[in-house]
Amino acid sequence: MPRLFNGNSLRLPKIAGNLKLTAGQISGLVSKSPWTKNFRHMLPVDIKHLRLTAKMSDITTPKVVLTRDRIKYWNIVPGDQIRVRGDRNNTLHTVEAINRWTNRVHLTPTEGSAQDAQEGRNRGPHVHYSKCQLYIGDFAFPPTNASEEPVTRRVFARRLGTSHPRWDPRVRHFVWKRAAVAVEPALPRFRKRRIEIPWPIVPKPPVIPAEPWDTSREEVGRVTWRPPPFAKDRTGAIPKVIPEKTFLSIMLSGGTLDVQHPIEIYLAKELSNPHGFAKRHERWLTYQEYKKTLLAEYIERETKHLDGRTMTAARADAVFMCRERLEQERKDKVGLKQTYHKLKLERKTRRKNRKQEKIRARLANMVLPEAPNQVLPRLEEVTL
Q1: Has this prediction a pTM greater than 0.90?
Q2: How many CB atoms sit inside 10 A of residue 377's CB?
């Protein structure tokens, strides 16, 4: 998947072809996070592949919105309280999840709602993004008659406005402010004023209690190695380092070592990846230096003994002999690898044959116990 944003630019990258997502993947691309971290939901989807996978899986093809109709920055996120447009009772619903590919908002399930067969829990309704109105709060409205008391009514946002989105590297998602430009019902005190709507507070994940197999805090904080003491004087003696062979022999024999010695230098070779770029580049540089040294030796030897040849011919012979030797070394290395693989294959064949012989011997020596279900056929019943 290509990188979908840059630190200074919000443009989408150019990709070749459409995303081939299955119907099950589209249905499962619901997010419970209120933050916009990337713009993967703005990538085009292969509709033909989507219909084919839905037909093969025997499920309904999800209605993926066209790329130009998808919402880039979502202002209705999980944790918000909304009402559905057209609801005269002003019923409050809590947003449980959103699907940025279908522009659908999933609401918290209520009693009597449909049950999900796969997860075994109640499945809340889902509505289109355009049918949601954010809940701002309860406000007191003046009474219609002088004798009545003020009436408290729920106020919802009819139109939203936002600030310019920007990427925040500290929290690693896009940040902007949202505010209600027009509300319903209208508030007399807030005419021509924006009412800022705070983002929902994301609950912190629960702390999982420690299990018996987890490492304890005391064990993590325990000091297992200390650096060797160095003399404060620059002319002082440097601590002696144990040779590698001695260190390995002590470790294999189960002996004890002085923790003051810098034994970690021997682990650098074992813990480093020999197939990494740095190691391979180092071996390549060593081989290039070896070829240069070998060519210089051949040129020096051939130019000392010309035997009637010119310097140009002697250098040409030296280059030819150097190339032949390098080719022979390469063939020897390949032959050694082939010999190793041949020995490994022979060992595997012997083990396989030995296993087959044991199975045949076990079948030949098997004796069935006498039981009611063991019937010996009579000779006249045996047909050849």
Answers
A1: no
A2: 7
